[in-house]
Amino acid sequence: MTSLHNYILQHIKLPKKSIENTVQLLDEGSTIPFISRYRKELTGNLDEVQIGEIVKFKEQFEVLDKRKATILKTLEEQEVLTPELQKNIENAQDLVSLEDLYLPYRKKRKTKADTAREKGLEPLAKIIMAQNKRISNTDLSLLAEKYIKGDVASEEDALDGARNIIAEWVNERSDIRNMIRHQLDRHAMISTKVVKKYEDDENAQKFRDYFEWNESLNRIPSHRLLAILRATSEGFIRQKIEIDDDIALEKIENRIIKSNDAASEQIKVAIEDSYKRLLFPSLSNEALSNAKSKADETAIAVFSKNLRQLLLGSPLGEKRVLAIDPGFRSGCKLVCLDAQGNLLHNETIFPHPPQNDSLGAMRKISSLTDTYKIEAIAIGNGTASRETERLVKKVHFKNDVQVFVVSEAGASIYSASKIARDEFPNYDVTVRGAVSIGRRLQDPLAELVKIDAKSIGVGQYQHDVDQSELNKSLDTTVALCVNTVGVNINTASVPLLSYVSGIGPRLAENIVAYREENGAFTSRSEIKNVPRLGAKAFEQAAGFLRVKNGKNPLDDSSVHPESYGVVSKMAKDSKEDVSELIGNKTLLEKIQLENYVTETVGLPTLKDIINELEKPGLDIREKAKVFTFNQNIKTITDLKEGQLLPGIVNNITNFGCFVDIGIKESGLIHISNLSDSFVKDVNEHVHLHQQIVVKVLDVDVDRKRIQLKLHHLNKE
Fold first, then answer.
1. Distance CA 707, CA 698 (A)
2. How far apart, in whole angstroms, are the C-alpha atoms of residue 485 and residue 310?
3. 378 belongs to a structural domain
4. Which residues contact 28 (CB under 8 A, 6 or more apart)?
5. Which of 269, 299, 329 is the endpoint of a domain?
6. How much is the average pLDDT of 690-714?
7. Is the same domain home to 93 and 140?
8. pLDDT, position 320
């Protein structure tokens, strides 16, 4: 029986010791961020991606192992478990082969074969299937005649029942099933046809490309398969999976039929029935399901990559912000936030139609900017965004005020959420939405963690993929981002804290409650006083929690408390205080790391400590930069072929990227238009929220589609 470690080794080319130690750490309750950052010596310096792969195959093995135990118990209870069958089940390497072994014994609805057995026709099926001696038509007729009794009214009834039993045997043979699987893997085609009544339906037109389509199932890109499956589920098209049936049947016959007589003719009919009624429907569905799983995996990976880039987007930092949620009829909601994102003031202005009070709005913006010492303005990118941006840029500010356009994706979801209600119980959704826009500019990560990742607007077909796998991947992505940046324990919200390694929602609530009752934390060691936060949670979390201006300068760094003794020894040997080491590159370069290697602390950890001491609490994220769209482009009808326009990448897919060019519709840079040479990975050429220059290739006003080409990167 394959062990867990060997199972993982079969799927990942990593040192066995690294796998064993990582599995042990996971079993002890350690998280991926903690293991990758603070247990490098044990893992052999594995990164978070490699540890994530170990987690994936560990979970796969555990599911497989659990299923084996269930099947073995069931077979024991049925008293059909033989030593050989047990051995085969224990050695099964995947769920597919395991379920094939179990198929003949699985309880199922009454089948045609079951009915035939009840009529006593199994001996006849065995004689036909044996193919021991040549059977003529006359022999077969005489043989079948013996079974005419009760519900078996004729020779044909007897033979039909026998064929049903043989068809089931064929279906249950794992070698036959694997052979058809192989055919499907290599040669399956997926074809689609529009449902006639929807041919001119407006809602169906987005799927027009698939009204008649044919493509290899194993080569179809993820986004295309998901689009086809969505169109199918919405009833606009019909899809089917096909292979060459004649070849498949011939391969089965070659494997089963050993004679050329009346018996073989019966087996041939049974094989065809088995293939059309049992084998192909089941295995073509399995093939489509596998293709869907692969498409899901690809789509989820793209989504997670986009989400990571979005979460690690450029923060403005602790600046005082005036945020505007723009609108026409209902006005523009204004909120003023202090440097920590606290709400200072809110009101509504009406600069746009129908009120058109632009002068009053400009005076109000100017006045609030002065009153609250505003350093930056954040404008949501939804309805009336461009008009509001033009208005704001007409205002003469006394001081230098930067103006940013900020993505609103998911802000309405946040504004109506329990988190928002708890934060702002006395304000309506419009105020909460505007606050979210402002805070996103200050710190995208801290704000976006409050919103369901699926609502942030950086994925395609996110509602069509496996939701549990999607949520798992997105949660992991958010957690890795949060722990990569680190969290100020004295300002972090409950949602942000809950993603810190070892914390979770309940402890996050306890931390905030303790903070509100006892004031700001002054040291990492004080975290241990939080109710229900034990030694393990502290070990996992401490390195990712920052205490600004605390008693110990190391508390505002990623140096783990377990390594404070090492840093103290370095300082002592250097005849300096710990505070003197921090940021002192000259002093740090003189430290001989080999002198501080112990059984538990190796060079990888020591190098991390030195890097952190050199630049403690360094935020890996770039600072937010001001961006301006072409002011002459207001709608899709203003676009002309050949125009060069500034844009911001707002979504990345496997087939290209979408670019916001300042109008309602985003344009697509197809992967073939990203470079003059072959592009393997879109992310190698652009990243989310990158400011670029694009060339307009084609504009389809009716379908609201814009084709773009990457002109050059805006490096300013």
1. 5
2. 13
3. yes
4. none
5. 299
6. 89
7. no
8. 97
Tokens representing 137?
Answer: 């038509």
Strand partners, 646: 693
Let me know whether 204 and 282 are in one domain.
yes
- Take residue 584 and report the two structure tokens written for it: 């002192």
User: Residue 239: which domain range?
Assistant: 112-299
The predicted model scores a pTM of 0.84
Nearest residue to 376 via CA among 450, 454, 324: 324
> Is a pLDDT exceeding 90 seen at residue 540?
yes
8 Å CB contact between 245 and 189: no
Sequence-distant (6+) residues with CB within 8 A of 67 are 95, 98
Helix, strand or coil, per DSSP, at residue 487 = strand
**Three-class DSSP category at 90:** helix
C-alpha Rg value of the chain to the nearest Å: 33
Angstrom CA distances, 108 to 105, 114, 392, stand at 9, 10, 69
Owner of token pair 């034990």: 534
Q: Collapse the DSSP code of 193 into the 3-class scheme (helix H, G, I; strand E, B; otherwise coil) and give the result.
A: strand
CATH number, domain at 695?
2.40.50.140
The verdict on 58 and 118 lying in the same domain is no
Asked if residue 44 lies in contact with residue 80, where contact means CB atoms within 8 angstroms, the answer is no
Residues 78 and 163 in one domain: no
Angle at 588 between CA 587 and CA 590, to 5 degrees: 70
Q: Read off the tokens for 472.
A: 């798992």
What whole-number distance in Å separates Cα of residue 363 and Cα of residue 378? 17
Tell me the average pLDDT across 384-395.
Answer: 93
Residue 170 has pLDDT above 90, yes or no: yes
344-364 mean pLDDT: 96
C-beta separation of 380 from 408 below 8 A: yes
| Strands 237-242 vs 705-713: parallel, antiparallel or unpaired | unpaired
Helix (H, G, I), strand (E, B) or coil at 304: helix
Q: How many domains does the chain have?
A: 4
Q: Give the total residue count for the chain.
A: 716
Q: Are residues 380 and 288 in the same domain?
A: no
Q: Are strands 321-325 and 376-380 parallel, antiparallel or unpaired?
A: parallel
Helix or strand or coil: residue 673?
A: helix
Q: b/e string for 126-154 if b means 16 or more Cβ within 10 A?
A: ebbbebeeebeeeebeebbeebeeeebee
* pLDDT at 714 > cutoff 50: no
